[in-house]
Write a structure and sequence with these properties.
Strand content: 15-25%
CATH topology of the largest domain: Alpha-Beta Plaits
Cofactor: Mg(2+)
EC number: 2.7.7.65
Protein name: diguanylate cyclase
Strand order of the largest sheet: 6-7-5-8-9
CATH superfamily of the largest domain: Reverse transcriptase/Diguanylate cyclase domain
CATH architecture of the largest domain: 2-Layer Sandwich
CATH class of the largest domain: Alpha Beta
GO molecular function, one term: diguanylate cyclase activity
Distance between the termini: 73 Å
Number of helices: 10
Number of domains: 2
Organism: Pseudoalteromonas arctica
Order of helices and strands: HHHEEEEHHEHHEEHHEHE
Bound molecules: guanosine-5'-triphosphate
Shape: elongated
Length: about 300
């Protein structure tokens, strides 16, 4: 510990290692680590856990960025500058590898700092693993595995929320239901893999046809839905036209002659989930009955 103290005092002027604490005793270190663990346990969100850890560790090491890479992707603290030298640490609990924690620093890490970081990593790993598990479970519960879109259960929650906002704050929204036409023949004639690729392609079309405030869902099979914020009747028509146009332009979807039928409806403040859904579904039925590849309001 004395080494840490000497090191921080010697080079703090350069801005890399800040004085960690005036008094470094084993008792202090245990108290600090305990405080860190307590704070880390206040969140199950990976980004938050990393931010809490970064704030604490900044007292020891003036790093310019902190990143955590795992099978769940890359998370980094806000305003991370990743241009300086990366110092990579594997994080594991026993044989379970969690991922890599990367400190970006303009200055070299001394051995004493590295040792201290290893101690802090022991405080980080359990709360981080809990957050990773939570993220996986949340994904399983709310996302469609094939397309990564929100699933039906998430749709039910979103729809209730939108109806509540519509009733209380007169915030209008609309529901659009979409179903692919002639999709069965893609699977039957070209195989399930091409069928899956078509569904993924259509998901991209939907995501690129809406604004960030709108949401896309896959119910299963070739059925999708959109919840559109603040729409006018014409907005819905514009969105539907945009989707059908992108489907026509998609090399994959045009190759397999897949189009989409669309039904939509505007919400009103008296609507229940069943009522609004039934109206959009009638619109979709009308579109199918009118020969497919078109959009109908109800
Ligand atoms: N590749 C793939 N196919 C799926 C998936 N889920 C459901 N399907 C298939 O989607 C097809 C849905 O067919 P329908 O909507 O009934 O048929 P369609 O040809 O689109 O008929 P219309 O809607 O009347 O134009 C069925 O063949 C299902 O087996 C999936 O995850 N991947």
């Amino acid at each position: 510990m004395e080494n840490v103290h000497i090191l921080t005092q010697r080079v703090s002027g350069r801005g890399d290692f800040l004085p960690f604490s005036a008094e470094h005793s084993p008792t202090n270190e245990i108290t600090e680590t305990h405080k860190l663990v307590t704070e880390l346990q206040t969140s199950l969100v990976i980004e938050d856990v990393l931010a809490i850890y970064a704030k604490f560790t900044k007292q020891l090491l003036n790093f310019s960025g902190l990143q955590f890479q795992s099978t769940l992707g890359t998370t980094q603290t806000s305003q991370s500058d990743t241009n300086s030298t990366p110092y990579i640490f594997d994080l594991a609990i026993g044989k379970e590898h969690l991922g890599q924690l990367i400190y970006f620093s303009k200055f070299p890490l001394g051995q004493a700092i590295e040792k201290k970081l290893h101690t802090l990593h022991t405080a980080l790993v359990y709360p981080l693993r809990n957050a990773m598990m939570y993220s996986r479970v949340l994904k399983l519960a709310t996302k469609d595995a094939l397309t990564g879109l929100n699933n039906r259960s998430q749709f039910n929650d979103f729809l209730l929320q939108k109806l509540e906002n519509c009733r209380r704050y007169q915030r209008p929204f609309s529901l659009m239901l979409l179903d692919l036409d002639n999709f069965k023949q893609v699977n039957d004639n070209f195989g399930h893999k091409i069928g899956d690729d078509t569904l993924k392609e259509f998901s991209k079309v939907l995501c690129s046809s809406i604004r960030g405030t709108d949401s896309v869902f896959r119910f299963g099979g070739d059925e999708f839905a959109l919840l559109i914020e603040d729409p006018e009747f014409t907005t819905n028509k514009v969105i539907a036209e945009r989707i059908m146009c992108l489907v026509r332009k998609s090399p994959l979807m045009s190759k397999y002659k897949v189009t989409t039928s669309i039904g939509f409806t505007l919400a009103n403040s008296q609507d229940s989930e069943t009522e609004i859904f039934a109206r959009a579904d009638k619109g979709l039925y009308k579109a199918k009955a009118s020969g497919r590849n078109c959009a109908k309001a109800y």
